Amino acid sequence: LCRGGLAERLCRLQNRERSAISFWRHQCMSEDKIPSDKSGVLIVKILEIFEECTIQVAICQQLEQSPATLSPEDAVINAEEPILKVLFTRETAAHLKSRPQDVIHIYPPWQKLLLQNADVPVIMNTYFSQKVLLSEHSEPREKTYGPTKMLIRKNIISLAQTFRLDDLDDNLHQESSDNQVACAPQTHNNSDSKRHPSALSAVNDSLLEMVESQGAVGWREVQVRVVIQRVYCLPAREGCRSHAQGNKTLLSNGGMFCRLCLLVQDAYGMFSEVQLQSLGSTDDIEQYCKRWEGKSCCLAGMKILQRTTRGRAVGLFSLIDSLWPPVVPVKVPGQSQDSEMMTTDLPPPSFCYILTVQSGEIHVEVDEEEQISDLYQPPAVHSLKEILRINGCNERCSFWAQVLYRRLQTKHSVPIDQREMLLFVTDSSLQNVAHGIPKVVAVSVTASCVLSMEIIEALSADSPLVFFKDALWGNGRIICVERTVLLLQKPLLCSAAGADLSELTGPVRLDELDSTTQASSLCALRGTVVGVNESTAFSWPTCNRCGNGKLEVCPQDRELLYCNQCSEVVTAPVLKMQLEVFLSCPSRSQSTVKVKVWHEISHIAVQTERPALFVLLTMLLLLQAYEVQSVLGKEVGLLNCYVHSITSHPNCVALEEIVLE
C-alpha cells in the first residue's frame, strides 16, 4: 500500500475497528455481565431472521424495558412497540447465534437508516451487540433448542432482480426449505451429500454472483454450473507439502508435489481456477483431459483461496486470453438475457478467483455422458512455422512436434528436479522450408511445468512425437510453464486451422553452422581438422543401465564397479571418451571452431558406425599409438552438434557433438 494513501488509512481504520470489537467482546465475556453503561443502548427482541447477500437480517421489536425485569408475559408481542430491521454482519451473527425471541442489546455507535418508501427503519453498525440470557428461562430454552440446529432462510437476490428487470428468473428467487442453511456450525456428512445431491439448492450459473452472495468462507449449500475449459497440474506450494504428506492429498512425481486443477468458465464468461486434491498419479492427467475437458460440471463445497489480477498472475491470464473472446455469446450481468442482449463483444476478464475444495465437502460433479458444451474452446493447433511468425508476446500456442534432442540445463547451484530442460523439436513445416526459418527450434521446459512419468520415459526414447498444449510463445522463445500440458496423444477435440501437421518422412536435417547460428541451438557442422587438444582427452566408465558416470568400487569385490543410482553391480560398464578438436569451417572462416567429441565403447567392441575421424581419435585415446598429425587435415562430414557458446573476444564457437534421438 502507498504510504499515507487512502488504502493504507482504511486498512489501519479496519484493524483498529476489529481490535476494538475483539477487546469489547473479551471484556464482556471475562466479566460475565452486561456493561453497566446503558446510555444509548438499543434493546430489541428478535421476531424473524433471514440472510441476504451474506448479511443476517433480523426483524425485531424495540423494547423500552430492561431485560432483567422481563416476565413471561412480556414475551408477548406488543403491536404498539416499533418494528426495526437490524443488520448483523456474518461475524457478528456467528458470535451472537441468535434465534427468534432472543433479546439483544446493541451498544453505540449504532446507526438508524430511514429509507424512502419504507416504513421499517434499518439499524446498522451493530458490531457491539450482546445477547441477554434470562437465567430463569435459560434451562428450558437449552432443552428446547440445544440438541437441534435452527435453519434460517437465505434469500438469493439475482442481478436481474437488483436492477429491476422485467424478465426475472423465478428459479433464482426461491425461499423453499431447500434454500436454508444452519445458523450454527454443523457436521457435514459427505456420504449423505453424495447420495442425496438434491439436498443442495438450485444450481446457479454465475461464479461472481456466488462469490458475492456466499463470501470467502465457502459454498456449502449452493452449486454453480460451469464448463471445464482446461485440465492441468500445478506444483504445490512448499508450505503445503509437509501437511499433505500425512493425508496423501498431493502426489509426488520425481520429487515434485502436484495437484490437479481445472480452469472453468461460467455462462457470463467469467473464469475461475479450481484446485483439487484428488489425483493419484500424474499419469492420470491425460485421462482427466479426455474425460473432463469440454464438459459441464457443478461446483460445490468450494472456498475462495485468492482473488488474483493480471499483474499478479501473468501465466494464468495468458491462458485465459487464449480462450477469449468466447466462441458463443455469453450473458451480460445486469441486462436482460434475451438472445439479442447476449454478446461476445466484451472486454477480457481483469480478475479471477482461485477456488479450492473444503475438506469433507462435495467437490466436482462432472456429467461425462453429456455432450461437449458450445462454450468450450479446444486448443488451436498450429505448425511450428506459424508459431514462429506470431508477433505477439506471452501468447499461448499448441503444436504437435517430434523431439530430436533433450538437454538438462547445467546449473549446479539448482537441484536437478528444479532445473530447466531444453527440448529441440521440429515438424514437417520447418523441415520443408528452404531458408529464413530454422529447421529445429528449442522448447524450454521450466521446473514449474509438471511432466507425467509417461512423458519423462518417452523423452528418453527415440524421437517421440509429443503434443504441446498451451505452451507460451514470446520474445522468440517457446516455453512450457505452469498450466502447459505435454501429451503423447493429440486431443480428440482440437482445431488445426489449416496447419501442416503431416508426419516427417525422411531424415531430419539441421541448419549448418554460419554467422546466424546462436548459442544453445543445434547445427550441422562440416570442416577440416586443424588441431587436437590432447590435454582434454580422458575416458570414464558409466553404468550400462542408467548412464550414471559416477561409479564406485564394489565393497564386496574391488574388481567390480557399483552404481548407486541402480543399487546394483555394473558387470558390463560402458566406456566413454572425450576429446576436443579444432576445425576450420568455411561458413565461419574468421572464428575458431572448437568441437568436443565423444565416443562410447560397450564391453570391448568399437562402434564402427562412427565416422572414421572418431575411430582414429578413439584409438588415439586407447592405445596412445597414433600421432596427432595422422588426423590433421582430415575432412569432417556433417556432424550434429549442440552450440555451447559463441564469443566475439576471442572469436570462438564452442560446440559439442551429439546424437539425435
From TrEMBL:
<dbReference type="InterPro" id="IPR028032">
    <property type="entry name" value="DUF4503"/>
</dbReference>
<dbReference type="Pfam" id="PF14951">
    <property type="entry name" value="DUF4503"/>
</dbReference>
<dbReference type="GO" id="GO:0000228">
    <property type="term" value="C:nuclear chromosome"/>
</dbReference>
<feature type="region of interest" description="Disordered">
    <location>
        <begin position="176"/>
        <end position="198"/>
    </location>
</feature>
<dbReference type="InterPro" id="IPR053054">
    <property type="entry name" value="DNA_repair-scaffolding"/>
</dbReference>
<dbReference type="GO" id="GO:0070202">
    <property type="term" value="P:regulation of establishment of protein localization to chromosome"/>
</dbReference>
<protein>
    <submittedName>
        <fullName>SPIDR protein</fullName>
    </submittedName>
</protein>
<feature type="domain" description="DUF4503">
    <location>
        <begin position="265"/>
        <end position="660"/>
    </location>
</feature>
<dbReference type="GO" id="GO:0000724">
    <property type="term" value="P:double-strand break repair via homologous recombination"/>
</dbReference>
<dbReference type="Pfam" id="PF14950">
    <property type="entry name" value="DUF4502"/>
</dbReference>
<feature type="domain" description="DUF4502">
    <location>
        <begin position="1"/>
        <end position="113"/>
    </location>
</feature>
<dbReference type="GO" id="GO:0005654">
    <property type="term" value="C:nucleoplasm"/>
</dbReference>
<dbReference type="InterPro" id="IPR028026">
    <property type="entry name" value="DUF4502"/>
</dbReference>
